[in-house]
Amino acid sequence: MSKIRYTKYIPNPADAIDLEELLDQLKEFFLESGFSSQYRSTTEHAQNLQNLYQALAEILSESEQLSQEWRESLDKYSRQFPYGTLPDDLKELLDQLIERLVDRDYLRPSEESWGQPPLEGEGTESEAAGDVWFELTNKSIDFLGYRTFRELLGSVGGNSFGLHETRELSTGVQSDAHSRPYEFGDTLNLDVGATLLRAVRREGLGVPLNLEYGDLMVYQTDYHSSCATVLMLDCSHSMILYGEDRFTPAKKVALALAHLTRTQFPGDSLHVVLFHDSAEEIPLAKLASTKVGPYHTNTCEGLRLSRRILMNQKKDMRQIIMITDGKPSAIKLPNGRIYKNPFGLDPMILQETFKEVSNCRKNGILINTFMVARDHYLMDFVMKVSQICRGKAYFTTSLDLGSYLFMDFMNNKTKTVH
């Protein structure tokens, strides 16, 4: 007869960690924009395994879901990073958490060597593991967008169901106005009472009552339109200068705006364009890993690319949401070269930029500018852009950028906020 041996159950501390809360706390690690000082190495911002260990240790050292002993060990390691040695028990705990995040499709390792021992002659295991980079998946980006959206609008209260209202009237299911005669192409949402009344007035009381095409009356509702949006993000070096990181909040706003578009405005489209020395469209999945660089600001090229994208979208409304520090310092010349002038506002750069703003207006594209700087000469430039395209200018900071942007996007008002 086989024997059964009973042992004391020792719970795995990694199983007690809420992965969604942990991912939300890791948001700063994955959305970091390269904001550093002269005393910090750029490798400190790499999203590799060693830095992920350190980020997890900092978060878990304050977690009430772990015992005091675990928290003290994690806190000691995070304070000694990168010079301290990761104990085996802590490494096992952190590895289990990372594996759970990968299994639940929240993280994706960029190297197939994750979890495999290093080959002979390739260095230590920690050195090989440090070469493994991680990135957010579509699932985690959508989750973080939802969390960011909820945080930014938590104090606003309830909002509308999610289609852009206009001043036009249309036919639909909900009755909001007087009915009108049916026209070809209308939704056949009949106002039965008005239809019968028109027939009686034409033929008089009698049975049977013959209905004709001209008797049909349909309800009117507010016409709801679809909108194509390009979010233009300035990733020039000035976005992280002067002791303030402006690009990381912009990336958070982009994730939240994508969630808002997908859930409340399903007929809309959202594209992300980065502008620096030139301009490029990127998929939303690559936004989290985007860093600022030693770039200038080619606002003209960003507007040109955004206009081309929007003209290919068959939507009723087209708009550009531009987040910038307001100073264009580069343009693309006809020969393909990039002309740069970081000192002040160059007249040639301004002329080409204003020309592209005018092209956007001619094509019916609205430009709303969210400026995260307060220099007077830069504010004058943004105001000029708003006057040309009849858009809106918001002079905001990285702290209230999201509130301004989402209230504008949902309310769709026509006034300019200065």
Record the strand order, biggest sheet: 8-7-6-9-12-13
Number-wise, the strands total: 13
CATH superfamily of the largest domain: von Willebrand factor, type A domain
Radius of gyration: 28 Å
Q: What is the CATH domain class of the largest domain? A: Alpha Beta
Mean pLDDT: 76
Assembly level:
single chain
Query: What is the strand content?
Result: 15-25%
Unreliable sequence segments: 36-42, 112-130, 154-167, 169-175, 412-418
Main sheet summary: 6 strands, mixed
| End-to-end C-alpha gap | 84 Å
For the record, the count of structural domains works out to 3
Architecture of the largest domain, according to CATH? 3-Layer(aba) Sandwich
Q: With helices defined by DSSP (H or I, 4 residues minimum), what is the helix count? A: 13
Tell me, briefly, the overall form.
flat
CATH topology of the largest domain: Rossmann fold
The percentage helix is 25-40%
Order of helices and strands: HHHHHEHEHEEHEEHEEHEEEHEHEH
Topology:
Blueprint lengths: L18 H7 L1 H5 L17 H12 L7 H13 L7 H16 L3 E3 L15 H5 L4 E3 L1 H15 L11 E7 L6 E5 L10 H12 L13 E9 L1 E8 L12 H18 L4 E7 L3 E4 L16 H13 L5 E8 L5 E3 L5 E3 L6 H16 L2 E7 L4 H14 L2 E4 L5 H11 L7
Parallel strand pairs: 6-7, 6-9, 9-12, 12-13
Antiparallel strand pairs: 1-2, 3-5, 4-5, 7-8, 10-11
Helix pairs in contact: 3-4, 7-9, 9-13, 10-11, 11-12
